[in-house]
Design brief:
heterodimer; A: alpha/beta; Rossmann fold; 2 domains; 12 helices; B: alpha+beta; Beta-Lactamase
């Protein structure tokens, strides 16, 4: 017997297509998200982005902000570009602390009373039926009230969100709770999104990892992300290397992928490098093409650091170069995801992808994609496959 | 606290830009990744970081090949101005753009001071992160 089809509301998109695809269109409704880290990180960016994406697609988003006055939050959200302000509703928790009258329809009048906090948020959920809720953040409450009471409130909010068919996100940095409490909180959630930030050599890197709590659920790798002005959150790869033997079509691949690109070439061959900025499917990547000739290998070495992934371009009509291609891969180092682009696949005598894989002795799970870079064929697919391999959604 | 490196590097760039002949400056890692920038809006600092890494990498190789010893600085001279790519510690490069009629003595002195500050800031940061991983 077939299960009767259930009409489920559209999922809540993150606004990052490459992730939404893996989430089968977004986070299901209702669901509970825990945005978690044990150190300060950029998880507010995820929360804000989630609320903004909702508001932009015509949904009502409710943002409970314990730290900022709504007026200030609205100014800060301007960096996302155009945000329909009537769709983004705040629960004001700061005016009462400053003894100011609140300008917002929903406000917490006594920040010292968990009951009042709970009542204000629940009223907003019941009256508004928001499609998305962001609570920024739970550590604010854990720091001020008894743990058991906060957990009780936490559960009530989850229940209210479920009744309203909403996706609710809780931001939470853990300073004080022990592992057992954390497990309870994880178990209350449908998805846990963990966040990491690091600073090295003055360069800040952020990443996140999405895990679905149910058995055999989705679990991604650490996904590097960044903020793009006037757009929002993007998956960000600081370096995708395009490499391969001489005259395989690397510069053409960089050009085909990029909105804007530069090539430092002389007499038809790249002497320094190609550079392009890629923007597709919510992915932002900086693509570096290396020279193919052995005499420029020192240039290759300059750029072969902190590589997110490699597009290895080979000329399908030149089997004699495949060994060199394999060697170039070894220059990048082990454990870096790569995709082979079997370029010039439209030319007579082009080897089939399977044959190239066999001759290069590639592991079975390495994709070999036929491409015609001059006609922009297959190149974007190859990059998308590489991106999915890096972030672990493939 | 290692998170301070960003603002401190920006301060070094701001200080450099106070020199009247200096038109802009950027700090990049030696592999071409941008660290901090104070350039005109029309320029893409990430692109410039990549090119500077190639200039420095190539110059360094040439210097070694020709037995000229340790790399210090590359100067690109054009009819409008000059581009100085200077090593700043083990990891970083300082890129400085100057006007053609600049007082080069003053510029080089400021650049020299800046690269020392940058090296010190990045060194201090790597010590902090080394301690944190212990």
């Amino acid at each position: 017997m077939m299960a009767s089809p259930r009409v489920s509301p559209p999922r809540a998109k993150t606004g990052i297509p490459v992730l939404d695809e893996r989430l089968q269109g977004g986070f299901p409704r209702p669901s509970t998200l825990l945005l978690f880290s044990d150190k300060p990180t950029e998880k507010r960016l995820f929360g804000e982005n989630f609320a903004v994406q909702g508001a932009r697609s015509g949904e009502v988003s409710l943002y409970v902000d314990f730290f900022r006055a709504p007026q200030l939050a609205r100014v800060e959200l301007k960096r996302f570009g155009n945000v329909p302000t009537d769709k983004l509703v705040f629960v004001d928790a700061t005016s009462s602390q400053l003894l100011l009258p609140s300008q917002e329809p929903y406000h917490i009048d006594d920040i010292g009373s968990l009951e009042k906090i709970s009542a204000a948020i629940l009223t907003a959920i019941e009256e508004l039926h928001p499609a998305r809720i962001v609570v920024d953040s739970m550590e604010f409450l854990i720091d001020r009230f008894p743990k058991e009471d906060v957990l009780k409130l936490w559960r009530r909010l989850i229940d209210a969100a479920k009744a309203a068919g909403t996706v609710i996100c809780f931001l939470f940095i853990n300073w004080t709770l022990v592992e057992r409490d954390l497990q309870t909180i994880r178990a209350m959630s449908d998805f846990v999104v963990e966040f990491q930030s690091s600073v090295r050599g003055g360069i800040v890197r952020n990443s996140m990892r999405i895990s679905q709590m149910e058995a055999n659920g989705i679990r991604t790798n650490w996904i590097p992300y960044a903020f793009k002005d006037l757009v929002g959150m993007t998956v960000y790869f600081p370096r995708i290397l395009v490499t391969g033997p001489f005259n395989a079509g690397k510069s053409t691949v960089v050009r085909a992928l990029s909105e804007k690109s530069i090539s430092i070439d002389r007499m038809g061959t790249t002497v320094a490098f190609d550079y392009g900025n890629v923007n597709m499917m919510g992915i932002e990547a900086e693509v570096f093409g290396t020279p193919g000739q052995e005499r420029f290998e020192f240039i290759f070495k300059i750029f072969a650091r902190e590589v997110s992934g490699v597009l290895l371009v080979v000329d399908s009509t030149r089997p004699e170069d495949l060994l060199r291609a394999r060697q170039m891969l070894d220059l990048v180092g082990p454990r870096i995801p790569y995709v082979v682009l079997a370029n010039k696949s439209d030319l007579p005598g082009a080897l089939a992808p399977g044959e190239i894989a066999r001759r290069m002795d590639l592991p079975e799970d390495v994709p070999v994609i036929p491409t015609v870079a001059t006609e922009d064929k297959g190149v974007r697919d190859a990059l998308l496959i590489l991106a999915e391999m890096i972030i672990g959604v493939r | 606290m290692s998170l301070d490196a960003g603002p401190r590097l920006q301060a070094v760039l701001a200080e450099l830009r106070r020199v009247p002949d200096i038109l802009g400056a950027t700090i990049a890692r030696r592999d071409g990744i941008l660290i901090a920038s104070a350039l005109a809006k029309s320029m893409d600092p990430r692109k410039i970081a990549a090119m500077a890494a190639a200039i420095v990498g190539t110059s360094e190789m040439a210097a070694t090949e020709m037995g000229l010893g340790v790399f210090n600085q590359s100067i690109v001279d054009t009819h409008i101005g000059k581009l100085l790519a200077t090593g700043a510690g083990e990891e970083a490069i300082l890129i400085t753009m100057v006007r053609n009629d600049a007082n080069m003595g003053l510029v080089l002195l400021s650049v020299d001071r800046a690269v020392q500050s940058i090296a010190a800031i990045l060194d201090a940061e790597s010590e902090v992160s080394a301690e944190a991983t212990v």
